[in-house]
Amino acid sequence: SAGKELEEAGNRGALSFENLKGTLTKVLGVIGGVAFIKSQFAEFTEAALEIDTASKTLGMDIKEFQGWQNAAEKVGLETRDLVQDVSDRMYDAVLHDSGPFKDAVEDIGISLKGVKEGATSSADMLLQFARAVEKMPKDKAHGLLTQYSFDPESIKLIMMGEKELEKLIKTGKEKARFDKRDIENAQKLREAQQRLNTAWRTISALFA
User: Whole-model pTM?
Assistant: First the structure.
């Protein structure tokens, strides 16, 4: 699989490149191939580690984050922006016990008790909004969300309703590009890349 190949590459990368250094007569013929491989490794590590960082920031596991990413992309949003916005709003409402978000949850019929107790995450809150609007006339739900300054993309996502939203999240988790093993591989590849870059600079200097 691609993940296994990348893992092996991460473990072998520096050694393989060291062998290449010792065969200088072949360097010119493989420069293009090495550059391509380096770019692929860089793309993989950057994407995987970005997912890892974002999911940790939002308090999600890797697959849950990618599940929400699938849903967010349907309305032109990034998971980080969507969930972080709701997080900022709901904790601000709890902290000050006032504001548009507090008014919104009260009007729509959602409790902030779980937020105060630390049991309700931003993702949970979004699903609660989606569940609540399923029980309301669409015009009223849309009007309330607009009134309380939700952006158009977030409104589209919430208006899908809980069932559709959970379906998209489930699909995104099943089709997740990265898992924990990939993150570990990406970390290995980053370390290998650092060694590769050092070796590449040494070879480049020979032809300068």
Answer: 0.69
